[in-house]
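Supplementary Methods. Inverse-folding protocol.

Structures were first reduced to a discrete structure-token string of length 195. This string, shown here, constituted the complete conditioning input.
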């Protein structure tokens, strides 16, 4: 195979959810549509130039604050904690949550060398103290790493006098939040339980 094409295939197959056949379809499409290839290249290049982390919640943002943190209609006293920024969109689609978010940046995972100090736990605790938060909802994956992270957050947050709840486990155990449909995720939010 031609070396530049093989390089594109190799790059595409490193992306999540794209196997060799999908990579070939994308690469050949881009090869036959140079204007689309250019548009895609410019969009990808702009990701790291135009998008950064929200200084308040650590989600993705074009400015200092993301749209949720900027919205004065949101319940500023309720924070929903997620592991990764893209999980926010899944919760937003349920239209069940009107508070704000906090992105940890992952989950505690001793086998992967990820501890509490590698996450934004201290910033979350500071937000709770400084912003007068009344409830923190843990929307973490129902698996070992999610449970470890939830236990650690509970130890950090309970002494601050804040109500800590977690979404109900209507989300299948061992599955990512992004694979849950909006109805299941919405019911899980409504059925959250105190910790």
């Amino acid at each position: 195979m031609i070396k530049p094409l093989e390089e594109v295939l190799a790059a595409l197959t490193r992306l999540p959810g794209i196997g060799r056949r999908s990579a070939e379809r994308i690469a050949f499409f881009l090869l036959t549509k140079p204007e689309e290839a250019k548009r895609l290249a410019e969009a990808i290049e702009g990701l790291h130039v135009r998008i950064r982390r929200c200084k308040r919640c650590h989600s993705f943002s074009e400015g200092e604050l993301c749209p949720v943190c900027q919205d004065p209609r949101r319940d500023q006293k309720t924070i929903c904690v997620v592991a990764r920024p893209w999980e926010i969109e899944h919760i937003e689609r349920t239209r069940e949550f009107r508070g704000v978010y906090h992105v940890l940046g992952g989950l505690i995972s001793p086998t992967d060398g990820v501890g509490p100090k590698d996450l934004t736990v201290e910033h979350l605790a500071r937000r709770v103290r400084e912003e007068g938060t009344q409830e923190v909802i843990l929307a973490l994956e129902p698996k070992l790493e999610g449970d470890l992270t939830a236990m650690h957050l509970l130890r950090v947050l309970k002494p601050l006098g804040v109500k800590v709840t977690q979404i109900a486990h209507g989300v299948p155990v061992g599955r990512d939040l992004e694979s849950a449909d909006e109805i299941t995720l919405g019911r899980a939010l409504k059925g959250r339980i105190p910790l």
